[in-house]
Design goal:
Keywords: Copper, Copper transport, Ion transport, Membrane, Transmembrane, Transmembrane helix, Transport. The chain has 148 residues and is mainly α. The chain contains three helices and four strands, in the order E-E-H-E-E-H-H. Helices cover 55% and strands 8% of the residues.
Length: 148
Amino acid sequence: MMHMTLYWGKKVTLLFDSWKTESWLSYSMSLLACLVVAALYQYLENRRIRLRLAGERRLPPVAAAIQTPLMGWKISSDKAKLGGKLIGSVLFGVNSGIGYLLMLAIMSFNGGVFVAIVLGLSIGYLLFRSEVFEDDVGGVGDRTCACA
């Protein structure tokens, strides 16, 4: 039976039928996993924002083509921008997936899971995203929902 109201207890099913907690040890390990994944969400968001900021910076005219001296290859700034966009898109997809999984975990309606995820998001924000550089992004700022 799925709970439809917030409850407190060690018996919870998270995301999969096979992820059930029956003891306090398994429950606390699950809460720790939720906390770590929520902090990882903030870390990946930080990486994505930094990548976007690095891509928006204009390359100086001298560095329009990056040369690799050993192989003689030239990488144009257009290819570098495309690579940055591709990596940014992959990071966005992974981060969105993690955000939705966190949201579904909260929908277990277990109070401990809720607190662990909110605490993990807060710790991750403190460690990785509380820097001033977010004001420079333009449109990508603080979001209170992990899946946003």
